[in-house]
Structures are given as structure tokens and as C-alpha cells.
Design a protein that fits this description.
This protein has ten helices and no strands. By secondary structure, the protein is mainly alpha-helical. Helix 3 runs antiparallel to helix 4 and helix 8 runs antiparallel to helix 10.
Length: 242
């Protein structure tokens, strides 16, 4: 993706660079999982700005240490806090800081990107375990949102419907040599499964897996499942009756 981004900008804008603002998602994650004492990892010239952003988020209980213990609550807390951290707090304070001070010592390029890049470099190495927990929670949420809505009852439904889907795929793996139609159905169903997992993993790593990012695979999942169930029905009942 990055090489595509750089190549596109080279041919369109004449510069082999990425687009601005592309690191703000990682910085949002870095702040969500941060603690106040992490200021010691921040470059001295950015420590005051870090504390301004952190303290505002902490005061409003938007950070991970204030999230509920249960999974549903933790996922909802992250989703609810994300835009408040990124757009309402971090971006506003960085823009304000850039308008008041000189950050040329960070290097060349977009100053806001350089500030966020410095935060990412300073914070992310110390947040691996918490970031993985957030990713795992987001991933499960995205899998649910792909086929349903994230409620307790529909989480159970999602587990059931994915189990049925996997059982169907197993059936076609076992009987794929019966005919070309079995091979084609198996190929289609596996591709849909890979598409779902890849999409959910990507959005879970970069932002959070809300419905508008995961719904694209919902019709494909339903179509693949219906086709598999019909073919199994035809194999088991229709051919037996004939």
C-alpha cells in the first residue's frame, strides 16, 4: 500500500512521498494505550505537548486504563473514545502548537506528520502488549460486525453462523473431488473467508472495526453460505431421493 501511495504521488505530484496525515491513526492508538509516565520516552521538545494531549484525554476518561473490564464494554469504550482523542484533542493541540512554535528541528516535511511520527517512535515500542489486546478486541468486534451487530445475543449468533460456515467449508474440502462444482464452491467460500479476515485485520490494526468498514463482506458471506448449504442439501437429499 505504501509503495502504491508513493508511486501515485510521484506521477501525479512529481514527488516520491506518501500523503500527509497517514500516521495519525497509529498516533491515536499510541495515546489510547499510553500512561502519563511515558512522557520520559518523548523527545524533550515535545514533552509539554504530549502532556497537554494526554491530560485532556485522561481527564475525559478516553484512555485504555479507564475502559471497562468486559469485552463488550472495552470495545465500545475504544470506539467511543477514538475520534475524541484524534480529532477533538490530538489534532487540535498539534495544530495549535505548530502555529505557536518552531519544530524545524524535527526535520523536513509536514510538521504535524513529523510530530506524530516522533510520538509513534517514542511510544509504540513500549505499548506492544496493550496494542495487541486492543487489536484482538477490535478483530473480534469486526468479525461480529461483518455478519451482524455487536450485541450479546448477536455475538452468540455470529459464533454459530461462523461455525456453520466452517463446517460447510470442511465438507467441501472432504468432497472436493466429487465434481468441478464442489471445487468452485470451495474456492469461492475460501476466498470470501480470506477477504473477511483480511479486511477485519486491516481496519482493526489501523482504526476500529465499525460496521461501515466491515459491511462490504456481509453479502458475500451470505451468498457463499447459501450456495454451500444448497449444494450440501442437493448432495445429501436430492441425489438420495433420485
Amino acid at each position: 500500500m505504501r509503495i502504491f501511495d508513493y508511486t501515485y504521488n510521484y506521477f501525479v505530484n512529481g514527488k516520491f512521498i506518501g500523503h500527509t496525515e497517514d500516521n495519525r491513526f497509529a498516533t491515536t492508538m499510541a495515546f489510547y494505550t499510553s500512561e502519563r509516565e511515558y512522557v520520559k520516552y518523548i523527545e524533550p521538545g515535545l514533552q509539554e505537548l504530549y502532556l497537554e494531549i494526554y491530560d485532556e484525554c485522561d481527564k475525559n476518561k478516553w484512555l485504555m486504563h479507564d475502559s471497562p473490564e468486559n469485552w463488550l464494554g472495552a470495545v465500545a469504550h475504544f470506539g467511543d473514545s477514538y475520534d475524541y482523542i484524534q480529532l477533538n484533542t490530538m489534532e487540535m493541540k498539534i495544530i495549535d502548537a505548530v502555529s505557536k512554535a518552531d519544530y524545524s528541528w524535527l526535520g523536513t516535511g509536514d510538521t504535524k506528520d513529523l510530530i506524530r511520527g516522533s510520538f509513534n517512535k517514542s511510544l509504540l515500542p513500549y505499548e506492544t502488549n496493550k496494542l495487541m489486546r486492543v487489536f484482538f478486541n477490535n478483530f473480534l468486534s469486526g468479525m461480529v460486525n461483518t455478519v451482524a451487530v455487536r450485541t450479546l445475543l448477536l455475538c452468540v449468533y455470529s459464533l454459530l453462523i461462523y461455525t456453520i460456515y466452517l463446517i460447510c467449508i470442511t465438507y467441501f474440502i472432504v468432497f472436493r473431488k466429487r465434481s468441478n462444482i464442489h471445487k468452485r464452491i470451495l474456492c469461492m467460500s475460501v476466498v470470501v473467508a480470506i477477504s473477511i479476515v483480511s479486511n477485519v485485520a486491516l481496519v482493526s490494526a489501523l482504526i476500529f472495526a465499525q460496521t461501515r468498514y466491515t459491511i462490504y463482506n456481509m453479502p458475500l458471506f451470505s451468498i457463499a453460505l447459501i450456495i454451500m448449504l444448497y449444494q450440501i442439501y442437493a448432495d445429501v437429499f436430492l441425489k438420495r431421493n433420485n
